[in-house]
Amino acid sequence: MASWKNRGGPESNSRNLVSRKLSIFLCISCFCAGMLFTDRMWKEPEAKGISRSTRNEAENLKFLAEDCNTKSNDVRRGSKYNIGEVSKTHNAVQTLDKTISKLEMELAAARAMQDSIVTGSPISDDLTLLNPIKKRKYFMVIGINTAFSSRKRRDSVRATWMPQGDKLKKLEEEKGIIMRFVIGHSATSGGILDRAIEAEEKKHGDFLRLEHIEGYLELSAKTKKYITTAVALWDADFYVKVDDDVHVNIGTLGATLSRYQSKPRVYVGCMKSGPVLAHKGVRYHEPEHWKFGEVGNKYFRHATGQLYAISRDLATYISINQHVLHKYANEDVSIGSWFIGLDVEHIDDRRLCCGTPPDCEWKAQAGNVCVASFDWSCSGICRSADRIKDVHKRCGEDESALWNASF
Which domains does the chain show, CATH number per domain? Predict the structure, then answer.
């Protein structure tokens, strides 16, 4: 009991007090050392990292701002440049349009001349005088479709509505109207039929000879050749096709067409849409009837073939594309088909297809003179060589209507 008390006396208490003080001191020292170590290892590197990152971002932002400003200036300069270029391009396109139109006419003329040279066929007097004629602008060219067997019809036309001799030349010089009988050649070159036409030409000087072999089933090809040749020879506002058994008032025709001079692509005539005849052996049979749909269908709208007129742009189109334009059995259908798909204004004027007296006579008395008169039953004036003089007397315009007119 005593020995236990001696071991737990004042000496033992003193050692315990020192140990406590030493532990507290060591704890404080460790804490301070830890604080110092943490401050050096984390705070300083973190601060440096943030500073470097901020500096890099600032530089990047500055670069982007400068790049945007540069691009913005480029866009402004580019916009001004583009506007100027668009304006220049628009003016250039307008100039090219006019130039192309002129070149197309010259190309058509060159092709007609080339065809004559290549085939070795005789070149007409009109074609040899191509350059002087091209300098003159004409109002209209009237091609009167005729055949070798139609001498009496031609003479009846010359005796009624077609001026002759000096008057024919005066019509060209003062009114800008060209009139010619249109005919090709016979299958036997230089044969009796061709020689007869040559003799008639020497007497009247009113033919346009085509590089074409005559034949009833070749009327579409003949019309195409007529338009192509006429475009090459004469620069006119309108090109007219008329049959030699139809009566025409030239002054009234000119006054009618003059209404459409400002329009670029017009197709003037009596528009119709007849049935497509599929049965063989009937008149106007269409061998390619299947192209128009089921049996019993009708053709598209087109002008009747007795008389129609087309503007210069359409005639030039035919001339340039003559080798790829399809020919149907019926000439009037072929012409109408060539304009399908084009921006063409179809003018339906019933004064271009009046009936013979009393129809055209009543209209003339009422002050509504017809442009052309014929019988539908004959696709022309029935027995025209005998009757056309009577039609002219009763339905013809006053002579002053032509010579006092200005086109």
Answer: 118-403 (3.90.550.50)
